[in-house]
Amino acid sequence: KIDGKEVKFTLVAEDDQADPKTGATVAQKLVDAKVVGVVGHLNSGTSIPASPIYNQAGIPVLSGSATNPKLTEQGFKTQFRVVGRDDQQGPAIAQYLADNNKPKMVAVIDDATAYGEGIANEVEKTLKAAKITVLPREKGTDKTTDWKAILTKLRGRNPDAVFYGGMDATGGPLLKQGRELGIKAVFSFGDGACTDKMKELAGDAAEGLLCSQAGIPPQAADKKFLDAYKKKFNTDPILYSPFTYDAANLLIEAMKNANSTDPKKYLPELQKISFTGASGPISFDEKGDRKSPEITIFTMKGGKLDPIAVVKGDKTMKYEEFVKGMK
Fold this sequence. Notes:
The protein has 327 residues and is of the alpha/beta class. 42% of the residues lie in helices and 18% in strands.
């Protein structure tokens, strides 16, 4: 109930096709449809061009997955995110790599998107600060599936580790071809390629990869949420399900607190909200970023992504210890 009236929420879904132009078109369409709040977009590359459109219309938008820092650095009061940022995620995976694998030389590759390049930059910065040699950056695109030329060049330099900023569709072939060319380095990725699909795309080469996800893994989410999700969809939640679910509930909670579905009235409530969702306690800083988010480090073990550590601020915990603390 909001303002004493029963309120029914209707989902208006649009597909931005992970394309920046389509993202802006979709945003305008939703604004014209007079939606009262938006959950999305998935990618940073679509979230960033869409954000000024929502801002101008005064419509709050919460992303459960866009991690590029620029999204909330634009100063829009309507933009929020429920996950950590690449300048938190990049350093986390780089630090884990430095501490655990102790590489002397690392190759960094990106897919030239806002997301891929952004996270690769953060990884490079952290590695260099740890006095690790980083080879000159190599670049593909978000459509590249033939990495042989780049990999052959890297093989000549014999790096101990490779980091790729990009999605699984391009990261899988990169890993597979790297192993086929006899590169022994440990391959590491950000959340875009931290998916079960890596096993399908890279086959046995996926074993032992390292990757990070902004936030906690789905299996560490609130049990009530996990059970309800399984019951409804007959499958386990994918990477950003708990965060997107929380994003929707945060909008509803802010409306309840404001006793209104009017974006102007509930936006201030959203800014100061303190809410415990499926992904843990959520509150926002003045930029609309989640305060003290977790980053989880995974490895691929027996064809499954296995969480091994959780990084929060400058503290790294073994995954088991973190889960014990959550319960």
